[in-house]
Amino acid sequence: MNASPAPEDSHDHCDHDHSHGQGVFFTIETFALVVWGAVLTYYVASGKVTPFLTTTGIFREQALVGGLLLFVVAVFNFVMRNRFPGCGHDHGDGGHEHHHDEGTAMSKAISLAILTVPVVLAACFAPSDWTDEFLRVQANSQVATNAPAASSALVNQVKEDNKSTPAGFTLEDFKKYAPPTPEGHFRLSVSDLWSIAGDPDVRKVLAGQVVETTAQVVNDTMSKAGGNRLRVFELQMTCCAADARPVSFPIEFSGTVPEFREMGWYQVTGTIDFLDERGGKITVIKVTDMAPTTKPKPGGRAI
User: pTM for this structure?
Assistant: First the structure.
C-alpha cells in the first residue's frame, strides 16, 4: 500500500519570514541600550560619579567600560535585527498565514519610556555630590561617632609590617608610613585619625603629636563636653556609595568655638589625644589652627 502523499498545505515553517515583527523589538532594545550606555559614560566622563566611587581599585574604569560595552551590544543588535537562522525542521502546520503582533504605537512608546526615562531623569536631576543636609545628619549620627572597633587600611598595614618587631611599635615605625611635614606634623585623613583610636599601640606613639587633616567641619551635637567643640567628618568608602560609612570625631578649642561655615572645608591643625567616651577610646584634636581651604581633589589621600 502506497503512503499517502503529504498534504499540499504542509510546508516548512522555517521558510516564513519572521523578521518583520522583530525589527520593532530590536529598535526599542537598541535605543534603550544606547541611552543606558550614554548615561553611564556621561557619569564617568563628566566626573559626576567621582564622589560615589572610590579610587581604590578600578571601579571607575569598570563603569566606563560597562557603558562602552552597552554601545557595542546596541550596534550588534541593530546590525543583526533581521537576521534569524532557520529552525531546521518542518512544523507541518498547514499553509496558513502567520501574523506577528507588533503592538500599538502607544504600547511601544510606553515600553521605550519604561526602559529609558528613569535613567535619563537620574542623569539630569540626580545631585553630583552628597547633599549638605545628608552629610550634616551623618556627621552626628551614632554610627559616625562610635568608637572604632577596627583600624583603617593604613593602621592595619602598619601593624602587619611591625607585628614581629621585638622592641614594639615606635614613632619612627609610624613615620615610615606617614612621613611628617617639614614642620614635623603628621598629615592624616579623618578616617585614619578616627581609626587610630581603635589601636592601643598606635595610640601610644601618636598621643600628643601634632597632626593635620583636611575635612568638612560641622557643629557637634553629640559631645557632652561643653560648647568648645566642633566635629570633622568624612564618608569612608570601600568601593562605592552603597557601602559608604560616616566617620567623625570632635575637635576641641581652648576657648570658644571660632566663627566657621557649616559644612565648609578646613585644614585643622592641633595635637592629637584619645578620650574615653561612648564605651571606648575616641580621637580628639586639640586645635591650634583651623584655616579655610578648598575641597581636596577626588581620590586624593591626606598622606
Answer: 0.63
